[in-house]
Design a protein that fits this description.
Order of helices and strands: EEHEEEEEH
Radius of gyration: 14 Å
Number of strands: 7
CATH topology: SH3 type barrels
CATH architecture: Roll
Number of domains: 1
Shape: globular
CATH class: Mainly Beta
Oligomer: single chain
Helix content: 10-25%
Structural class: alpha+beta
């Protein structure tokens, strides 16, 4: 029987983002889970994530959010809000690298809203 992982909102996990198309971010990389915990508890087939990178592009600095290295997240990383997307939960590795605090998660969420809002 296959073990079922319950993932945590704000948790950082490795995800297989290949194949990527055009300017999409790809490869095996850390991602922050943004899906609500209530939905995660139901073990959904798709989850909403924000990829992390060790690099931030200056043109998107207002959208990117810096996350300091901690626990198993070995380098300072940037949440690349413009690359947020839904992926299959099966693309995730079950090992949690770290968990973001509420302030960090709130700022990433605000940055997502900036991406889709005209305000």
């Amino acid at each position: 029987m296959e073990e079922v992982n319950i993932f945590v909102r704000g948790g950082v996990y490795l995800a297989k983002l290949n194949p990527s198309k055009y300017d999409e971010i790809g490869k095996l990389r850390p991602v922050v889970i943004l899906t609500s915990q209530k939905i995660l508890n139901a073990i959904p087939p798709l989850i909403f994530i924000c990829p992390l990178s060790s690099k931030s592009h200056k043109d998107f600095k207002y959208l990117h959010y810096e996350i300091s290295a901690r626990n198993k997240l070995e380098v300072t990383s940037y949440a690349l809000v413009e690359h947020c997307k839904s992926i299959s939960i099966q693309r995730l590795d079950g090992t949690c690298l770290c968990i973001l605090n509420q302030k960090e998660l709130l700022q990433i969420t605000k940055n997502v809203l900036c991406l889709i809002s005209d305000d």
